[in-house]
Amino acid sequence: MELDKENVVQAVVLGDTFNNNFYPISGEKSLALFPMVGVPLIDFVLESLAQGGVGETILFCCQDVQNIKDHIKKCIDKKSSWSLTMEVHIKTSDSCLTMGDAMREIDASGVIKGPFILTGVNSISNIPYATLLEQHK
After folding, report:
1. What is the third-level CATH fold of 10-136?
2. Cα distance between residue 1 and residue 99, in whole Å
3. Distance from C-alpha of 50 to C-alpha of 44, rounded to nearest angstrom
4. Which of 11, 12, 72 has its CA nearest to residue 40?
5. CA distance 39 to 61
6. Is 110 left (phi over 0), alpha (psi -120 to 50) or beta?
7. Which of 10, 12, 14, 112 is most buried as measured by Cβ atoms within 10 A of its Cβ?
């Protein structure tokens, strides 16, 4: 599917919470890969974004990066429903300690083209994101 690169609805998903709420479990595995009913949280988040009208997602993660990359590649290879309508780009950092650090790094990378959806890997909903973003504009 060819996406309209100029008018695509973008989202940024922060794969890290930058806190210790789930420690010690989160010390070994990224929250993005935590299972909910046997399915990693990131799958639910990406599906809700795709269903909400998002065409491009930047997944920003600092922890467990290779496992997240492997998981996303596996989802794309098996043609998960979100991968048919949405592109996912993974941006990583090993120096971010806060959400502010992450947002500064995302901004400096120049991947955001205008207004965007910002969410965390722990946010699952059925919101019509594209409609809400258009109202916000």
Report:
1. Spore Coat Polysaccharide Biosynthesis Protein SpsA; Chain A (3.90.550)
2. 33
3. 10
4. 72
5. 19
6. left
7. 14
* pLDDT > 70 in the chain, percent: 88
Under 8 Å between Cβ of 88 and 54: no
Question: Taking all residues of the chain, what is their mean pLDDT, rounded to a whole number?
Answer: 86
pLDDT at 97: 86
List, as own/partner pairs, every contact residues 122-126 make where C-beta atoms lie below 8 angstroms and the sequence separation is at least 24, other chains included.
122/17, 122/31, 122/41, 123/45, 124/41, 124/44, 124/45, 124/48, 125/48, 125/52, 126/48, 126/51, 126/52
Q: What is the pLDDT of residues 76-90, one digit of tens each?
A: 999 999 999 999 999
Residue type at 116? F
pLDDT at position 3 over 60: no
- Which DSSP category does 98 fall into? S
For the chain, what are the domain ranges?
10-136
Helix ranges, the chain (H): 41-51, 65-77, 99-109, 129-136
